[in-house]
Amino acid sequence: MHKSDRLFQLVNLLKGRRLAITAKQLAERFEVSERTIYRDIESLQSSGLPIFGEAGIGYIIHDHPLPPMMFSLDELTALLLGSKMVSAWTDPTLSGHAKAAMEKIEAVLPSQLKQQSEYSPYLVASFNHGAKQQAFSALLRDAINANYCVKLQYQDANNAQSLRTIEPLGMVYWGGKWTLVAYCQLRNDYREFRLDRMLDLTATTIPFATNTNKNLEHYVALVRAKYADQS
Predict the structure, then answer these.
(1) Helix-turn-helix type domain: from which residue to which, for each copy (predicted)?
(2) CB 52 within 8 A of CB 60
(3) Domains defined along the chain, listed by start
């Protein structure tokens, strides 16, 4: 666990307790040494967190706004809106992480700001991203991370169907539709595939390699150059 993650979880743990907890208990909880916990506590206290207690007795956070986690309403709106988008428009795993992130943010908010955040004017609809697209999204995310080819049955805008082996490079959200950017082995070139037009998707164990002329950044550079020439 990274130090930043441990500090964040440490704050949440102390914030949620009514009674003090010792450094030994914290060390066992986070699987680190007591010395590490002492350093973490000192670091948090020096940043302004109201942590009370001492070694051998225990630590607790009094009910008080936490300075490092203070957000303006606009900052909070941006963070929560982004998390809601990820929650609504990606696969269940990423959605779960987004919801967990929102809970962590809301857990350390002062009550006044928490009340304001509950009345956001933004609504994120998820009805265009069904279970099938979510499953495809999860499969593609794993394939992109592992650099494995996938077999795709696809139906284009003219209802023509094709079966291809593709090398998935990344996914782009175009405000309503997810599009997969991939290198198509049938065409030996970049192709874009909308998730809502995918009929079937199968993972393989066939690896592929990227290079300077075959990766997501290269594709984006080509697109930018194309539109620059047209302007």
Answers:
(1) 6-60
(2) yes
(3) 3-68 (1.10.10.10), 71-117 (no CATH), 135-230 (2.30.30.520)
Indicate the residue type of 198: M
